[in-house]
Design goal:
Blueprint: H1 15-24, H2 30-37, H3 39-52, H4 60-63, H5 68-83, E1 97-101, E2 104-112, H6 135-159, E3 167-173, H7 186-192, E4 194-200, E5 209-214, E6 217-219, E7 225-227, E8 241-245, E9 260-264, E10 281-283
Parallel strand pairs: 2-3, 3-8, 9-10
Antiparallel strand pairs: 1-2, 4-5, 6-7, 8-9
Length: about 290
């Protein structure tokens, strides 16, 4: 039996015990401490690790103590791929996951959003209090990690780790932001500038028409604009697709991978082949630029 948690945490049952333990291991990610000391959580993560450990890079167990959401997201995605019969590799240098399919390389770089700092920080969820969904703040965080990973993609190309002809996917988990996605996955707003649902009626009468508005950017509190047009810009043609989940790994769907969506980049110079990842719920533009939402 392989175990994800290499620290000998005592199993705890109260919030007071948990906070004491988090304080004792203050140099660790608090989610790592909590997940390794609460029996139900520990069993859930260890079960996933049992499937994944032989594919993990040599830094995995060390880094998971500081980057818990990101590395467990990578582990969860790896388990989903294995469940679907897709083998992959993971090395110490380069993107997190490499799939080789029909002579092509598909690199997947995983990232987990954090709540951020300052005025645009995603607020905490407060139990028992009605709150507005902080969609703008969450979109700013999603756009930030897309930009960050695009810059990393360019560095991989520069260093020769990823070839210009390889396919490249950014896999985003926004589960740690809490809150909910309003009506559609937020990733669609961040890459296609999808706004809000609209209803219109012709002046001379006729049936109602339903559609979606376009919001090309979000304004930060300081007045700067954060683009929501990631897949509408030719600059990002090197990114083949984006994966996305609104859940943390702890709260993943009962069926592995059912909570992950795949969004294709129609401007990609190296588009994903049909069949390889089509088992995910996916979104793409048709020839007229329409998306089925």
């Amino acid at each position: 039996m392989k175990y994800l948690f290499t620290d000998n945490f005592p199993l705890i049952t109260t919030e007071t015990e948990l906070q004491t333990l988090i304080k004792k291991y203050s140099n660790y990610d608090s989610y790592y401490v909590a997940s390794g000391s609460i029996k139900e959580r520990k069993n859930k993560f260890d079960s996933l690790y049992q499937k994944y450990y032989q594919y993990a890079d040599s830094n995995f167990l060390k880094e998971i103590k500081k980057k818990f959401h990101q590395r467990t997201w990578e582990m969860y995605l790896g388990c989903v791929l294995l469940e679907k019969g897709i083998t992959f590799s993971s090395k110490d240098i380069g993107p997190d996951i490499l799939i080789e399919y029909e002579g092509k390389k598909i690199w997947i770089e995983c990232v987990a959003c954090e709540k951020g700092k300052g005025e645009d920080r995603v607020p905490e969820t407060i139990t028992g209090i009605v709150q507005n969904v902080p969609s703008d703040e969450m979109l700013i965080r999603i756009a930030s990690v897309l930009k960050e990973k695009y810059e990393k993609y360019k560095k991989y190309i520069e260093d020769g780790i990823v070839k210009d002809s390889d396919q490249f996917v950014i896999a985003v988990s926004r589960g740690a932001l809490d809150h909910v996605d309003a009506s559609i996955p937020l990733i669609l707003r961040a890459v296609f500038a999808v706004g809000y649902q609209t209803i219109s009626r012709p002046i001379n009468g006729g049936p109602l028409k339903y559609g979606w508005s376009t919001i090309p950017f979000i304004l930060k509190k300081n007045g700067s604009k954060v683009p929501m047009t990631f897949f509408l810009e030719k600059e990002h043609e090197g990114i083949s697709a984006v994966m996305y989940t609104k859940n943390t790994v702890l709260n993943h769907s009962e069926i592995l991978g059912e909570d992950i969506v795949l969004v294709y980049n129609e401007l990609a110079k190296n588009p994903l082949q049909k069949g390889v990842l089509d088992f995910f719920k996916n979104y793409k533009c048709d020839e007229n630029g329409n998306i089925s939402l």
